[in-house]
Structure formats: C-alpha cells, structure tokens
Amino acid sequence: MEAPLSGLSLLLLLLAVGWESRMDAAWAPSPGGCELMQSIMDCTGRRLSSIPANLRGDTEELFLDDNTIQVLGNASLLLYPQLWHLSLTRNRLELIEPGAFLSSQGLEVLSLTDNLLFTNYSLTAAALSALPALRVLDLAGNQLREDMVSVLVSNLSSLESLSVARNIIMRLDSSTFTNLTELLELNLEKNYIFEIDNAFEGLQRLQRLNIAYNYLPCLIGFDLTQLRVLNVSNNVIEWFLTLEIDDLFELEVLDLSHNRLLFFPVLPQRSKLRSLLLQDNRMSFYQRLPNGTSLANVTVQFLIIDGNSTNITTVRLWDELCHSNLSSLRLLDMSQNEVWGLPDDFLAQMPSLTHLKLNQNCLEAFHLSEEDPLPMLTELDLSQNQLVELGVKVGTGDILPSLQLFNLSTNRLQALPPGIFAHTRKITTLDLSRNRVDLCPQPGEAESLACVDIRGVETLIHLSLAGCGLQSMGGRPFQGTSLIHLDLSDNRQALSGDLGWLQDLVLTLQVLSLRNTSLSSTAVDFSALSSLVHLDLSGNSLSAFPTSLGTLRLRSLDLRDNCLRALPLDVAQVPLGRSLREIYLSRNPYNCCTLGWWDALQQAEGLRVPDGREVTCSHGSHALSPGALPEPVLRSCRWQTADLALLYLVLALPTCLTLLVAFVVVFLMLKEKLLKMLKTRCGVSGPY
Predict the structure, then answer these.
(1) What b/e string do you get for 26-40 counting C-beta neighbours within 10 Å, with b at 16 or more?
(2) Which contiguous run of DSSP H or E holds residue 161?
(3) What gap in Å lies between CA 565 and CA 543, rounded to an integer?
(4) Residue 230 and residue 216: Cα distance in Å, rounded?
(5) Which residues is 86 bridged to in the sheet?
(6) Collapsing DSSP states into helix, strand and coil, what is residue 239?
(7) 218: nearest Cα among 305, 154, 141
(8) What burial class does residue 437 get, using C-beta atoms within 10 Å of its C-beta: 0-12 exposed, 13-18 middle, 19+ buried?
(9) φ and ψ at 657, to 5 degrees?
(10) How far does Cα 86 stand from its chain's mean position?
C-alpha cells in the first residue's frame, strides 16, 4: 500500500510539473548545447562531429544542420526511438552505416542535403532500406550520378517526395526510379540531364515534376496524364509535343519559360491546364509573316524514332493549336518572344483567361473584337512592343468587360480608339508611359484629335503618363475620374501652361510623381491637394523649398536632384513635418553654414531620411557630410552667421570715436574765438 504524499513532497511534485510545462512551451538550452521546444531538438551550427547522446529520449524532431558529422553510426540514434524527422543538411556526411536506422523505424522525413554521400552510397542505400515509413527524402547536392540515385532509392517504396536536385545526373531511364509507386513529387532541377527515356512510366501517382535548369533539347510524346505540375523551365527545349491521345490530362501548370521554343507547344486535347508559362523563348506564329508573306499551305513534319518504331507527325505551321484544349486556361505568359501577330481565333479558344502577358515581343498591331471578347480577362500586358495600332471593333457586345490592368507602356502609340473605355467598366490601372500620346482636353474633341480620352472613367485610379512628351495640358483631361496615383514624370513641358487640370484631382489624388518635369519653385501651388500622401519632385530645378507644401500632410517626399541650398528652419514643426515619415534629400548643393533644418529633421520623431548617408553640403569647393563637419568649417560658419547688427556696430565704432575726438580737438582749439564771437553777437560788455 502506497504512503500518502507529505506536504513537502506534494509541493516538489507541483514545482516539477510546472517546470516541465514551461520547458514544453518555450525554447530552452539542453545539456548538449541544443535548443528544445516541446519534442523538437535544434542542434544547428553547434560544431558537432557526432549526434549528442544526452538529449531527451522523447525527441521527435532533430535538426543537426551546419555541423561536421561525417559518419552516422549504427548506435547514433539508439536513444531516440520516437524520432520521425531528422535533418543533417550541410554536414560532411560520407557514410550512413547499415544499422543506423534500425531503432528509428518511424522516421518519415529525412534531409541529407549538401553532404558527400557519393563516397559510400551503396552502404547508405542499405541503411535507407530499413525505413519502411519514410515519406520525404532530400538528397540534393551530394554529387550523385543517376546510377547512384537508382541504388539509393531502389527499396523506398513508401516515398512520396524525393529531391535529387543539384547533383550530376545526366540521363534518366526506366531503371532510375523503379518501385517508387507512391511518389507524388520529384525534384530533378539543376542537374545535367539531356535525355529522358521512359523514366517516369512506373510513377503512376506522380503529380509534381521539376526538371528545371537542365539541358533537355525537346519533350516529344508527353503522356504523363496524372501529372498536375510540370516545370521544365531553363532548359534548351525547342519542341514540346503531347502524345495524341483522348485521355484526360490532369495537368494544371506547365512552365516552359526560358527555353528555345520555336513554336507554340502542342498541348493535350483534353486537359485542366490553368497556367501556361512560355516567357523568354524564340516563339512566333507563321500564319502571317511581318513582310506580308502567307504560309497557308506550309506544313512541318516531326520524325519520332522510338526504338525500332518510327512515327511521322505533320502539323500546319499556323495551326499549332489544332490539338490543344485551352478552354480552362487562366494565365498565359508569352512575354519575351518573337511574336509578330496572333493567329485568327487564337484568343477565342481561351474563354476563361484572366491574365495575358505579351510584353517584349514584336507586335505592331493588336485587334480586339466581339469574337474574342475575353470576358474573364483582368490583366493585359502589351508593353515593350512596337504597337502603332490598337484596333477595337465596337458593336453591341462587350469587349474586355472585366479588364482591370491595361499595360501599353513603351510602344509607338499616338492614340487609343474612341470609346474603348466605355466597354472596360472595371479598369483601375492604365499604363501609357513612353508613348507619344496626348490627353483629350475638351468634350467632343476625342473624335477630331489623335488623343486618349479618359474623362468619365470613374473606376480608373492608377494612371502612368511618364515620358509621353506631354505639352501643356489645357482643359480638363481628368474630369470625371477618381485618380489616386498619377505619374507625369519625364514630361518636361507638362507644367508649362495652365494648371487648371489639377482641380479635378484635389479630392482623390494621393500619389503624384513630377520627377524630371523642369519644375521651378513657384510653378505649382500644391496647397489644394489636401489628400496627397506621396509626392516625387526629384530631378527638377527647385532652388527654394515650395512654401505651398507646408500645409500638406505628406508621408513621403522626394526632393533629390534639385538645386536646394537649404530647407525652412521650421520644416519639422509645420503640418508637413509632423506627418512626414520619409524624405529623400540627396544630390542637392546645401550650404554647410545653414544646416539648422537638418538638425531639426534628425530630431523629428518617426521621420526617416533613407538616403541620409548620401546627403552632402558645400563649403567652398568641398562636399562634406552634414553630420560630421570639421571644426575649422564650424568656426568659419559661426563667423559667417554672426549677428549682423553686432558686426555693423563693431565696424562703425572706430569711425564714431574718430569723429568725436576730432570734434573735441577742434572745439578746444577754437574755444576763445568762439567765446568772443558769442559775446560780440549777444552784446555782453566786458569787465573794466
């Protein structure tokens, strides 16, 4: 029969339980110099050459990254039977002895990244084969060849995720990944793979495959119907051809970016493809060439040799889409290619498209019509082309009714079709920067002038007109808009005329960029822009701080690259100074002797000067840091800024004294004559 607990014993027991609870709730140092949190032991970067033997026996996760362990011995993990996650990343591991995991049958996640397992891979393979529950294995960065990988994973049928990235694998065949029947994810990026021969046939459950950054020249006969994500970016692929079968492909994401594709990929006839990334290739369409030549009857024949069988596939050059189903596509990125034009009905095959990127191509014209309405499209990027024409066939139907972001920057446009924004009822962002466009100034002039009419587009809140060569903007080009962000930078004549156009923006405008617009100190009165939060005045000719800024409550102000000699002394006390959170001031010729404003800014609470280290002031021919002026400069400045009244007094005092002395001397010399003259004039008789 057990004895009852005494009061002292009960108190000690409660203290022990409380201490254990606190250990479980927060990190604490362990006897081995590691950190403990609940059942997780972190021994990262402890210069350990072996696994510590004095850790908690109930450890479930053990991190030994960035140590110097070379061998994982048979007895290394005997004390930790509950271990399910082990990480040995960035050690010097050369060998895992065959019995190392016999006491860790529940191990599910094992990271062996960046070690030297190529040296004794066969013994290490024997050790791995004793892990029946292993689900995740990372062997990246171990200088493994394909034959070594095959041996290491040959008996790991429970694996669901395998990474052999950053090794020296060159060729894959059907023997490389045998028995990996449960594998869901495979990472092969950054190897030297140039050939794949039926390597994935046995991986019936594989859903995510990454073969990026290799040397694959083509992918022909793609038939992995169960795959959901395929990344083959950054290879040298010129052709991508899907096997012509009626099976439904589960593929949702296909990344072919940064390759050498010559044609649009031949995709599955039935698929769930949502994202197609074709950025940075050599792709074009050949229905119409830039010189007007038609290739209507030209075809390409693909000769496919598979063992002893030969297959010839014929494709019409402009019908690359004939076998592709793009009805579920949401994102299409074809930027940085050589596209001159799109085939007829190309966009009509993509009714679900929401994002279309065609920037950095060779497009000279882009036409929209009711046949290609793109009802779901929210983002259209046509920037950095050679567009001179944007055609819109307007009828009774809608065109781009869901469009929100329209990027037309860096083209050769001079106008947009009249009424184009009447159909884009949700547009919020329009980028027309670096085109030679003008804004329509008055109602009714949009039809008679080559201009862009944005008046009345109530949803538009972001507008960029940088570098458009805008002249003085007359009239009210922003009437009926609710612009929040307006970029007029790099328009040197935009502020030269009447600035009445600002009146339609006073209530909504929060971000205004007037960088490099030849702005002088008195050109613009900002006081009416009461909602302004961010203002960029850099790259102008400001020689004095605009006084109209003092009443604003800006949070960010950029005054770089101007001609400012000083800022107002009360800049930190006015409403502007109290609201500012960051101000950019570098590359101005400040006077080192009038830096009271700088000291005030340094003391202002919550205000940052991100380019403070670049701010300099001028003293003579020297450029100095305002926070570390030499003593001779300070003395010179004190003399230059002394009280002028005192200076004038010091200069006038000797002159006054000289005049006083001269007057006294003259008076003494002429005293008797002056007295006689006074007596004579006043008729006073002298004594007998």
Answers:
(1) eeeebebebbbeebe
(2) strand 161-163
(3) 7
(4) 14
(5) 62, 110
(6) strand
(7) 305
(8) buried
(9) -65, -40
(10) 34
| Rounded CA separation 353/114 (Å) | 41
Contact 188, 211 (CB under 8 A): yes
Contacts of 6 (CB under 8 A, 6+ apart): none
Helix crossing, 644-669 with 671-682: angle to 10°? 70
Q: Which pair of structure tokens corresponds to residue 202? A: 């046995």
Rounded Cα gap, residues 232 and 224, in angstroms: 14
Torsion sign, CA atoms 419, 424, 430, 431: negative
pLDDT digits (tens, 9 = 90+) for 143-178: 999 999 999 999 999 999 999 999 999 999 999 999
Pairwise CA distance, residues 499 & 421, whole Å: 25
Angle, alpha carbons 479-484-487 (nearest 5°): 90
State whether residue 421 is helix, strand or coil. Answer: helix
Query: What is the SS3 assignment for 162?
Result: strand
Closest CA to 67 of 43, 50, 91: 91
- Identify the residue whose tokens are 């060159």: 170
What token pair was written down for 369?
């019509």
Report the distance separating Cα 326 and Cα 275, nearest Å.
10
Report residue 228 CA to chain centroid gap. Answer: 27
Give bridge partners of residue 186 from the DSSP assignment. Answer: 162, 209
CA distance 62 to 82: 11
Looking at residue 292, what is its pLDDT?
Answer: 60
Q: How far apart are CA 163 and CA 70, in angstroms?
A: 21
Q: pLDDT at residue 251 above 60?
A: yes
Cα 15 from chain centre: 52
pLDDT digits (tens, 9 = 90+) for 660-678: 887 777 777 777 776 677 6
% residues pLDDT > 90 (the chain): 61
- Alpha carbon distance 115, 184 (integer Å): 24
How many residues are present in the chain? Answer: 688
Question: In this structure, what token pair is assigned to residue 653?
Answer: 């005092």
Alpha-carbon distances, residue 602 vs 19, 375, 549 (angstroms): 48, 53, 19
Residue 623 vs residues 247, 544, 619, 633: alpha-carbon distances, Å: 73, 20, 7, 12
Collapse the DSSP code of 618 into the 3-class scheme (helix H, G, I; strand E, B; otherwise coil) and give the result: strand
**What secondary structure letter does DSSP report for 449?**
S
Computed over every residue of the chain, the mean pLDDT equals 86
Report the alpha-carbon distance of residue 581 to residue 567 in Å, rounded. Answer: 17
Predicted TM-score (pTM) of the model is 0.83
| Among 168, 184, 175, residue whose Cα is nearest residue 151 | 175
pLDDT band at residue 316, thresholds of 50, 70 and 90?
A: low
The helix (H) or strand (E) run that includes residue 390 is strand 389-392
CA distance 259 to 438: 39
Are residues 641 and 594 in contact, defined by beta-carbon separation less than 8 angstroms? yes
What are the C-alpha distances in Å from 542 to residues 554, 566, 624? 18, 11, 21
Q: Which tokens is 535 given?
A: 């203002």
Residues 218-248 pLDDT 10s = 999 899 999 999 999 999 999 999 988 889 9
Q: Please give the domain boundaries of the chain with CATH numbers for all domains.
A: 221-349 (no CATH), 510-633 (3.80.10.10)
